Amino acid sequence: MLRIALLFLALLALPLKAATVTNLYQAQVALPDTDRQSEQAARRQALEQVLIKVSGQSNIVENEVVAKALGSSNQYVSQFSYANLDGQRTLQLTFDRSRIRTLLTQANSTFWSEKRPNVLVWLVEDANRSRNIVWDQANNDLANRIKDDAERRGVPVMMPIGDFEDVTAISTPDIWGGFVQPIATASQRYQPQAVLIVRARQQGGEQLAINWQLYTGNVEQLGRNQVAPSEGRSSGEAVTSVAQMVDSVADILGAKYAVPLGGDTSGQLAVVVENIHSSKDFFTLERLLTNLTSVAAVNAYRIQGDRVEFSVQLLSTEEAFQRELSQDRRLSAVAAPQEEQLEPAPQLEGVIGTTTVPAQPASLEQLGDEQPSDAEPVVITPAKQAAVFSWSSSAPVSTSVAL
Fold this sequence. Notes:
The protein is an alpha+beta fold. The chain has 3 domains: 26-112, no CATH class; 119-257, Rossmann fold (3-Layer(aba) Sandwich), CATH 3.40.50; 262-391. It is built from 13 helices and 16 strands. The longest helix has 20 residues, at 36-55. This is DUF2066 domain-containing protein.
């Protein structure tokens, strides 16, 4: 079929995916003894770690449904093995994705997919009366702790590399003083979805005081002072202080990007996307919508010129769908003219997926405008319109990140 041929051609030119975390359903925990009780405790701890990563909530274990499930962790395990880490015997576990999601749905919790925002960390360490920016290649103990805790929470982080471009764009006082403009300018090259500014002061021994700010969203908005940061402080032993900061940051990001499961949903939405000029654009956009965690099904029911109209069946709330959709930089919201609001149509142009597409259309417009002579009239009553978006296939997309 022509549709399959077009899909194959589009697959050959897929854009890079957004940051993808690959170890959400895996955990490695210490196994101090070989008795059955110690192993069961380790399995419970591993399930806690995975549920926290997947839900985006550090307090998920306080949920009554989850707390009960922790007592029977074995039913969620799909694979396990034993290993050694720094001389300590460990238990490595992989949990079943579908069962974890079912549990979170039963708990009316949230689900944070593998697609997650890249977080750029600007870290200044104040030690021995000297303040310095910590670069990625420095093998710094504090930076390594941040990376390890971020991996524990399933948050992809990156440190600036510290080359000539970095050192000429930003200085230690810029970061310590929290000056937004130079931080935004220096962050541009990394195209992060969030920027974390960390000021860490050594207080003797292993004691550490941390002051942090988290900016989420577009870096350009950060540079225009249009984004207010989330802020926090933690102090005490370095291990505890860093863990508290990362947990707070992960909870904030989880609250922003995770999708609510269970409860009422908003049903069906009509989504309009403009500036679609090729079959490649169309299939890329269709896959994008279909792969969203908040989406159950997608049907492209009308093509008019460079404008495609989709009917989207939701698994979650409309707010969760809009929030998830906004993560992709190739889509930008535009105002819908009042006279173009969607209305039920007795005969749709270019029905895709419900009628036969004519052979070898010369363009996407022809694919949309030519209706097969034997096609039956299709009546679809779209739900309310969610938004109108403009598509840009040249917008930057984050690369995959394996934690």
